[in-house]
Amino acid sequence: MIDQAVILAGGFGTRLAAVVSDVPKPMAPVAGRPFLERLLDRLESQGVRHAVLAVGYRSQIIRSHFGAARGAMKLSYSEETEPLGTGGALRQAFDSQALSRAIALNGDTWCDVDLHALSRSHAAAGTLATLTLVHQDDASRFGTVDIDPRGRVSGFREKRPDAGGGLINAGVYALDRGVFDLAPAAMRFSFENDVLQARAAEGRFGSHIAHGATFIDIGVPDDYARAQTLLARA
Questions:
Q1: CB atoms near residue 82 (< 10 Å)
Q2: Of 66, 90, 101, 123, which has the fewest Cβ atoms less than 10 A away?
Q3: Among candidates 101, 223, 124, which has minimal Cα distance to 173?
Q4: Which residues are registered as beta bridge partners of 220?
Q5: pLDDT digits (tens, 9 = 90+) for 21-48
């Protein structure tokens, strides 16, 4: 089991600004609690012992709320002094805490994947990154992911109105530090575009299909409203 995690919690939350504007997006209230509390509690319940919060926008709100621990789980912070993109923020978090392997996830999405199973898939694949994939009956607003017969990610398809059903990238990864050797040298870059999509055809990334998992992106107002009910019992 990979027992360290990095949570991307530094975004501006532009799409959610009309609903929640006074706190960082991961701190948006969901069924009476900050969403980030729910993420951290789920990580701890699955055996994660150290979580690194990659913070930026209004970071002090997150720091003052959580401090140095959540239950038995140690918390550390990696702070952007300027926007680094998802890739730059992940790389800085890995470097600042000298992480060799970690679960990485977004601070504004929920996916109830079994992290033990994801860790096993990553070890079996022997890749630098393993992506959690979730089937959506309507993938039109996500784009889909193709996998080859070995279970390696082979490509990404752009979102389109007639997409139908398919596997989407749920934004929960098992990563080895070496994955950043595939990244641009620039400080700021997109992990999704500049690493995953740019190198997918090389067969370097594994996949883990989380059958039956719930996926919610609270950055979308409709999903944020849906989360109030779905996560009330989580």
A1: 8
A2: 123
A3: 101
A4: none
A5: 677 889 999 999 999 999 999 999 999 9
The DSSP secondary-structure symbol of 137 reads S
Q: Supply the mean pLDDT for the chain.
A: 94
DSSP string, 20-63: --SS-GGG-EETTEEHHHHHHHHHHHTT--EEEEEE-TTHHHHH
pLDDT tens-digit map of 150-198: 999 999 999 888 888 999 999 999 999 999 999 999 999 999 999 999 9
Task: Indicate the Cα dihedral angle 229, 16, 113, 146, nearest 10°.
Answer: 130
Pull the structure tokens for residue 139: 């993938």
- Based on C-alpha coordinates, what's the Rg of the chain? 17
Tokens representing residue 39 in the block: 């993420």
Q: At 133, is the secondary structure helix, strand, or coil?
A: strand
Angle of helix 35-45 versus helix 59-66 axis, rounded to 10: 50
**What is the C-alpha separation between 222 and 210, in angstroms, rounded?**
23
DSSP 2: -
Token duo for residue 3 = 């027992």
Helix spans in the chain (H): 35-45, 59-66, 85-96, 115-125, 191, 198-199, 221-230
Q: Is the pLDDT of residue 119 over 80?
A: yes
Asked if 157 and 141 count as a contact pair (C-beta separation under 8 A), the reply is no
Mean pLDDT, to the nearest integer, of 197-214? Answer: 97
